[in-house]
Amino acid sequence: MAAMALPIMLAAEQDLFHMPSAEDVRIQPIARTDNETGWPFSVDSGNLTCVWSGGQKVVFFFEPRPEDLDEDEEFDPRGVLLSVNPLELTIGNIATRGLFAPAGSVEERIRLVAPFAAMGGKLCDQPAGSRVGYGEL
């Protein structure tokens, strides 16, 4: 019965006027491997997220909570929008651009970010609220 309702739920979520909530976000932890070249972020791990907003898949990368931070201490992670659109990638990330590894040009940053934006987009194909483990996409 739930499988039959999934397309209807997704249709509402993909509506241009749907306002996403925290329960709509899909999350996958990702981490840099030792031999990985082209890692676009300044931190070695974090969370790839996807949510439908304005009728489109919107993908972000968020830094992880520091291990040395006490549980009761508040933490507001930095996040960057992952897109192959140069305006979204540059202007949309002005405040948190330090979360990206240095890149020589916007074109290079797009090349580095594109695979992660595509992988994050696949997260939106999962049910709302999904937490996908390492290597499950």
Distance between the termini: 25 Å
- Residues in helix, %: 25-40%
Tell me, what's the shape?
Answer: globular
**Which structural category fits the helices and strands?**
alpha+beta
Helix and strand run:
HEEEEHH
Low-pLDDT ranges: none
Strand order of the largest sheet: 1-2-3-4
What's the total number of strands?
Answer: 4
Q: Radius of gyration over alpha carbons?
A: 16 Å
- What is the overall pLDDT average? 85
Which percent range describes the beta-strand content? 15-25%
Largest sheet, strands/sense/barrel: 4 strands, antiparallel
- How many helices does DSSP assign? 3
Can you offer a commentary on this structure?
This protein is an alpha+beta fold and 137 residues long. Helices cover 26% and strands 19% of the residues. It has helices spanning 2-13, 86-90, 106-123; strands at residues 26-31, 45-53, 56-62, 79-82. A four-stranded antiparallel beta sheet has the order 1-2-3-4, covered by helices on one side. The mean pLDDT is 85.
Give a brief rundown of this model.
The protein is α+β, with helices and mostly antiparallel strands and 137 residues long.
Keywords:
four-stranded antiparallel beta sheet; globular; 137 residues; alpha+beta
Which helices and strands appear, and what pairs or packs with what?
Blueprint: H1 2-13, E1 26-31, E2 45-53, E3 56-62, E4 79-82, H2 86-90, H3 106-123
Antiparallel strand pairs: 1-2, 2-3, 3-4
